[in-house]
Amino acid sequence: MQRKGITYKTLDNCFTQISDWQMAQKLSERINPEDLHKVLDILAKRYCPVVDEQKLCYQWTIQQIECSTDIVFLNREE
After folding, report:
1. pTM for this predicted structure
2. Between β-strands 8-11 and 14-18, what pairing exists: parallel, antiparallel or unpaired?
3. Does residue 73 sit within a domain?
4. Does 46 reside within a domain?
5. DSSP helix/strand/coil, 43
6. pLDDT at 4 over 90
7. d(CA 50, CA 44)
8. Do both 22 and 2 map to the same domain?
9. Looking at the domain assignment, is residue 75 inside a domain?
10. How many domains are there within the chain?
């Protein structure tokens, strides 16, 4: 989003403000899960060598996400 000039604010792992919601949505739709899994495999291999040593593997999923499709809260208390 930064490369596209979209400003945003986060709280923990949540976007609390996005300057261009439609463009952010378009960008998120371009995420290819298979490509993401490949990157995660590379990182796991690099930082968790025990996985290879023990002949283990990771099972990645992006299906378990939290989302709000129609509600944007004006303040944190809400």
Report:
1. 0.55
2. antiparallel
3. no
4. yes
5. helix
6. yes
7. 9
8. yes
9. no
10. 2
For 30-71, write each residue's pLDDT tens digit: 988 889 889 988 988 888 888 888 888 888 876 655 655 566
18: its two tokens: 């996005």
Do residues 60 and 43 both lie within one domain?
yes
**Both tokens of residue 28?**
């998120």
Residue with tokens 């291999």: 45
Whether residue 25 is contained in a domain is answered as yes
Provide the token pair at 8.
């945003």
Residue type, 1: M
Q: Whole domain around residue 24: which residue ranges? A: 1-30
* Encoded tokens for 10: 């986060």
My answer on whether 36 and 25 are in the same domain is no
Reduced to 3 DSSP states, what percent helix, strand and coil does the chain have, rounded to the nearest 5? 35, 10, 55
Q: Are 38 and 48 in contact (CB under 8 A)?
A: no
